[in-house]
Amino acid sequence: MVIGHELGHNVMNHMDKKRTNYLLGSIFDIAAAAYGVNTQGAFGSAAMQVYSQEFEAEADYVGLYYLHRAGYKIEDAVYFWRNFAAEHPGSIRANHAASHPATSERFIAMESVISEIKNKEFNSLPIQPEF
Asked: pLDDT tens per residue, the chain (131 residues)?
C-alpha cells in the first residue's frame, strides 16, 4: 500500500508542486526580511502545505491503481488502514492543518476506489485512474 502511494506522489509530481508552492511563499519571506521582519520562513512553509491533503488523497487513489495493475489484492488495503487506525488512534480525526486526510476519510475513499477499479474490471474497461 505504501509503495503504491509513494509511486502516486512521484507520478503526479507532488514534490515539484510543493517545491513551487514553497518558492512562491518564500517571496513573502524575502519581502518581509527586506523590511526587517524575520518570518523564519513561515510563508514558505505555509505555502508548501497548500494542497497537501489533496496530494495525499490523490496519491492514495493513483497508488491503488498501481497496486492492482501489479497484481496485488487491493481489497487487503482496507485492513492496512484498519490496523493503522488501531495503532494510531489520533490519525482518525480530521484536522485542517494536518498534512494527511483523516484515516477514516482515507478508508472511505479507498473503498470507493476499490469499487471503481472492480467495476472497470467487471465491465472490461481500461484499468486507469480518472483525472
From this structure: 788 989 999 999 999 999 999 999 999 999 999 999 999 999 999 998 888 889 999 999 999 999 999 999 998 887 887 787 778 776 656 665 566 777 778 888 999 999 999 999 999 999 999 98
Which three cell numbers mark 81? Answer: 488502514
The burial class, CB within 10 Å (0-12 / 13-18 / 19+), for 29 is buried
Residues with Cβ within 8 Å of 58's Cβ and at least 6 positions away in sequence, in order, are: 8, 12, 14
- The one-letter code for the residue type at 49 is Q
Q: pTM higher than 0.85 for the full model?
A: no
CA 20 to mean position of chain CA atoms: 17
Q: Rounded to an integer, what distance in angstroms lies between the CA atom of residue 15 and that of residue 51?
A: 11
Query: CA 49 → CA 29, 45, 67, 71, 88, distances in Å?
Result: 15, 7, 27, 33, 22
Q: Are 31 and 44 in contact (CB under 8 A)?
A: no
Is 92:102 a contact under the CB 8 Å cutoff?
A: yes
